[in-house]
Amino acid sequence: MGGPRGAGWVAAGLLLGAGACYCIYRLTRGRRRGDRELGMRPSKSAEDLTDGSYDDVLNAAQLQKLLYLLESTEDPVIIERALITLGNNAAFSVNQAIIRELGGIPIVGNKINHSNQSIKEKALNALNNLSVNVENQIKIKIYINQVCEDVFSGPLNSAVQLAGLRLLTNMTVTNDHQHMLHSYITDLFQVLLTGNGNTKVQVLKLLLNLSENPAMTEGLLRAQVDSSFLSLYDSHVAKEILLRVLTLFQNINNCLKIEGRLAVQPTFTEGSLFFLLHGEECTQKIKALVDHHDAEVKEKVLTIIPKI
User: Fold this and answer.
1) pTM attached to this predicted model
2) Fewer beta carbons within 10 Å, N or C terminal of the chain?
3) What number of other Cβ atoms are within 10 A of residue 43's Cβ?
4) Residue 265, domain CATH
5) Which pLDDT tens digit goes with each residue over 252-279?
6) What DSSP string describes 82-111?
7) If you compute the radius of gyration of the chain from its CA atoms, what whole number of angstroms results?
8) Per UniProt, what is the membrane topology (predicted)?
């Protein structure tokens, strides 16, 4: 094939070969890009997954690698980073189940006993995200008593206290585990009265969960609460707090009326929440809020007054 026709065949062959190489290059490049987009980076070590630059949602194999790292290392820096990564990934419902199935809840839960307060906080945050899954709550409930002890014995308004309160709030959204807080109700009111604004709001979220359950009503009303609690019904109190204490009053009253509970009241001691909520001072404070400048507060008060 030495003539023009032969040269044409050679040129065509080169073009076809170049085209084939380009297609292979495109396919290979596309596959690698696809792997990156799916978060499939098999070369990543467990520590690499915690370095803050890895933004993809972890898959099951990566989560297992991370859990092994968390269980095996004693380096506080790595433990904290691993907990942050796990906590972020536990915000996704599919990973909440995967972490449970991989045995991750006890691994995370054991870290709430760590002496490092920052590690303790990150462990509580991770458990908080995991607790959104109802099946996970069955495993997390064994930590409730420890969390309560940390919340009520630790520094007021600390990051650990707030993280613990958030977890307890999630764990009491349903009635299943609320009974485990019976012996801590008075402590909750103590933190409510002494904490700052953020702490007050978080405690009230938890108390509101309890107040919706008739089975918890007597325990709430028996709690010994300082009379300064009534100052939370003053008109100058922040709206996010005022609305919640009004709802607390409303919920407890509604539960008392269920199945005629008002007709058969147990004996409450002086200084209990019952005496505060059903005293003349509380009634007058709530009635005075009918002239509150905020429409939402006023509306809430108008729904309560007829039932006082």
Assistant:
1) 0.83
2) N
3) 5
4) 1.25.10.10
5) 999 988 756 554 566 889 999 999 999 9
6) HHHHHHHHTTSHHHHHHHHHTTHHHHHHGG
7) 29
8) Single-pass membrane protein
Q: How many C-beta atoms lie closer than 10 Å to residue 192's C-beta?
A: 24
**In the predicted model, is pLDDT for residue 13 greater than 90?**
no
* CA–CA dist 289, 247 (Å, integer): 13
Q: CA torsion, points 63, 66, 67, 72, in degrees to nearest 10?
A: 160
Report the length, in residues, of the chain. Answer: 308
Task: Provide the 8-state DSSP code for 266.
Answer: P
Mean pLDDT, rounded, for 116-135: 98
Does some domain include residue 228? yes
281 pLDDT higher than 90: yes
Spatial separation of the C-alpha atoms in residues 1 and 98, rounded to whole Å: 65
Tell me the C-alpha distance between 279 and 291, whole Å. 21
**Torsional sign, CA 29, 34, 35, 36:** positive
What is the residue range of 245's domain? 183-307
Q: How much of the chain exceeds pLDDT 90, in percent? A: 76
Same domain, residue pair 203 and 239: yes
